[in-house]
Amino acid sequence: MRKNKTTHFMAGIFIILFVGIFLTLSGRFLYIQATAEIDGVSLKKWADKQRTSTYKLPAERGKIYDNNGMTLAYDQPSYRIFAIVQEAYSDGAEEPRHVKEPRKTAEQLAPLLDMKESDIEKRLQEGIDNDRFQVEFGNKGRQLSLQKKEEIEELELPGIHFKEETVRAYPNGTFASQIIGFAKEMEIEGKEENATTQQLKGVTGIEKEMDKHLRGKDGYIAFQRDKYNKKLLDPKEVVKKNEDGGNIYLTIDQKIQTLLEDTLTQVEKKYEPERISAVVMNPKTGEVIAMGNRPSYNPNNPTDVENWYNDVVSTPFEPGSTMKMFTWAAAIEEGVYNGTEAYKSGQYQPNEKIKPVRDHNGGAGWGPISYNEGFERSSNVAASKLVWEKIGSDKYLEYLKAFQFDQKTNIDLPNEVAGKILYNWPAEKLTTAFGQDTTMTPIQQMKAATAIANNGKMLQPYIIDKLTEADKQKPIKEKQPKVVGEPISKATSKQVLQLLDLAVNGEHATGKNFQLDGYKVGGKTGTAQIPNPDGGYLIGRENYIFSFLGMAPIDNPQLMMYVSVKQPKLGEKKDGSLEMGSDPVAFIFKHVMENGLHYLNIDPDKQKMDNVKHIEIPSVVGKSGEAVAKELTEKGLRVTTTGKGKILKSNVQEGDQVLPNDHIMLITEKPKMPQIIGWSLRDALQLANLLELKTETFGDGYVATQNIKAGVAIKPGDYLGIELEPPNKQKKQE
């Protein structure tokens, strides 16, 4: 009886338990059926996702052009090589589809990937031993060109495959690299939770500053498929078009920028300075025509970069005597300047509490001289006396602020840093007058100097000319010259121009080294001391920042340039005399300015051109290439002809005035590739542009190798690969 009761009790417990489980499961099923959710996850969405294939339609990043439409940055397809090593991949195939012979594969791939055979074989063998499906080849196996991919495919190696990727290409290498910057593929957060996508993103320069405009928006295509990845009859296909990024046109001129880059490279190799900075500007508009620094980097391979910053806008320093043009401008504008008034040069000490100011010849001076001569000789004493005794230190500070030395220029480049007016103590008020203690960037000086070159009106520097949408020429935004101040009058600017003329062309000028053939230059030299971390300033004839801010033609400046070279290694000249700190600065300034003025068709000064022989280009198009080449060669020009027959186009036009030894290029019918070994990058790119070739450059300096051999027939669209080397590694071919 007791056993029967226990049995019934336990049976009741089990019935209740099973009923509870049944009701729970039934309720769960009913809930899932009603809500179609499990743990907050929609089963419908999950199922759709499982049977939906989605493919990204990547947006093309916008291009960056120079002011003439030359492409400076663009998206380029590249290829990643990988090897399938799993034997099962070849099941059922007539020919092997996996790497069957690792040693033979490594032997054939090694020279094309610039890798050791042993390294490739090791990678392949480890993949086989570890039963991997595929292996890759590291950095050497990425970013392969189409030409390299085709060379490898010609080997017909089993198991070797490629994946197409997009890389940002900079066809001119280090050309304006700290302006353009670079972009690289980075993970960008998507709209869905924890979703990321790979996309090119600007890291430095214009690529960073204008990343939003350049980037564009990716699209996608989605459709439903079966378990064999085939589209369903009703695939419910969804397509969202991609939106390519917009384009940017810079004010940079490719020819002048290339000229600047070549010159900076030569000075860097010869003098090994710590830093070089240079900027070329149109003083009538504020447009930056060229800008460069050394050290620089190649944005195609930004590794081991010594200096990421664009020193022209990001590195303030004590400018030295280039500051004096603004001190004299303030005195003239204030109405307290008498250029013929005499003062005692050498040393100046307003009172016993202030350290004496000394002229740059050790404080010896030149006796009593006029203030005009003081500017010509770059006298520190004259500058100090003007501030302390004529202008007044408080009033001078107002002029410093009127020239906006306490502000950024707001140039359209990232990471701009403004200098600092150090003006707390009497000694600092004196030293600021001749460019010590107070700091500023080269671009701040150039901005202030536009007031001198432009009738007193100070212009904002800018480097972006216009923005356009993808594949459209009409600008959505176009920059115009912008006057941001008027610190001096037109009359004052004219008088300062006369002083700048005197500082280069006068009897006692410190800037005689900067005179040009054909153009009258005005400007001011600078020799800035470098602060010593232990206090005071560094000593020694090389421990300075040597600089020059000049403009030409000085009666109506059309081009303005600033150059600074920090701590160059100075040697001896051929005549046995010592090199001066101004020599590397003058080499850069003269080479770029003179050629730049000619290129921009700025009329030379008549009085300076009497002794300069010019050659007028005759009509060449439609004429015999051989006959024209002979005629121009006899006139003293360097001529390159691309073959026989009639001339179709040239880098010069009828009536152009050129100088002896200028390089003339004649493009003929059915052109053949000329020998360009030893050419400058500028000449090589000019030829490629005339021939309409797709060009890729590697390295810096002058052409060392060309992938298209001389004499080979070429046509528009052909690929020209150029490898460059510094001038000290090869002989230049004239």
UniProtKB/TrEMBL annotation:
Transmembrane keyword on record: yes
Q: Which reaction does it catalyse?
A: Preferential cleavage: (Ac)2-L-Lys-D-Ala-|-D-Ala. Also transpeptidation of peptidyl-alanyl moieties that are N-acyl substituents of D-alanine
Q: In which pathway does it act?
A: Cell wall biogenesis; peptidoglycan biosynthesis
Q: Which GO terms describe its biological process?
A: cell wall organization; peptidoglycan biosynthetic process
Q: Where is the signal peptide?
A: none
Entry's localization field: Membrane
Report what the protein is called.
serine-type D-Ala-D-Ala carboxypeptidase
